[in-house]
Amino acid sequence: MAQDSSLRAVGWARSLPISSGVTAARDWTRKHLVSLGWERTAPDLVDSVVLAVSELVTNAHAHAGTAAQLILTWDEECLHVTVHDASTQLPQQRHADDSALGGRGLLLVDALADGWQVRRCPRGKDVTACFQPPSPTQAT
């Protein structure tokens, strides 16, 4: 019997004006991760994804000064978390000293995600982080 090799994916997208705040992004993301059943199978991963979303949306609002588009795509191997903003300036990891109030967002994303990248777009940029849940044998 031949296996179906077609890509199966599910995705969600939401626009987040600066006035909406980051809480809306976190709550919206958590709701979709619950729909995947991850609050039972990978609760620590849910917390990591939500924290990364918070950092990426905060960066879009604070540094780009624009609305952010948050896109979640689950392709059965990786949850791709993409935040798009209208700035063409690429983010740069900073090395904040211990007394700095900010400057650690991308360091956190780097520590939490299985991988991340930045891509220029015609109208801004996308920052995408990939999160791979534990396999069913690892989760037990």
Please explain how this structure is put together.
- The protein is α+β, with helices and mostly antiparallel strands.
- It has a single domain (about 25-90, about 100-140), classed as Heat Shock Protein 90, CATH 3.30.565.10.
- It has five helices and five strands, in the order βαααββαββα.
- The protein has helices spanning about 20-35, 40, 45-65, 105-110, 135-140; strands spanning about 10-15, 70-75, 80-85, 115-120, 125-130.
- Strands 1-2-3-5-4 form a five-stranded antiparallel sheet, with helices on one face.
- α1 (about 20-35) runs antiparallel to α3 (about 45-65) and α3 (about 45-65) runs antiparallel to α4.
- The longest helix has 22 residues, at about 45-65.
- The chain starts with 9 loop residues before the first strand and ends with a helix.
- The model has no long low-confidence stretch (mean pLDDT about 85).
- InterPro entries: Anti-sigma-factor_SerPK, HATPase_C_sf, HATPase_dom.
- One of its GO terms (molecular function) is ATP binding.
Q: How would you concisely characterize the structure shown here?
A:
The protein is an alpha+beta fold.
Strand line-up across the major sheet: 1-2-3-5-4
Contiguous helical run count = 5
CATH topology: Heat Shock Protein 90
Number of strands: 5
Q: Which ranges are low-confidence, i.e. pLDDT below 50, for 5 or more consecutive residues?
A: none
Shape: globular
User: What is the CATH class designation?
Assistant: Alpha Beta
Number of domains: 1
The CATH superfamily is known as Histidine kinase-like ATPase, C-terminal domain
- SS content category: alpha+beta
**What does the average pLDDT come to?**
87
CATH architecture group name: 2-Layer Sandwich
Main β-sheet description:
5 strands, antiparallel
* Helix and strand sequence: EHHHEEHEEH
Share in helix = 25-40%
Distance linking N and C termini: 30 Å
Strand content: 25-35%
- Gyration radius (Cα, Å) is 16 Å
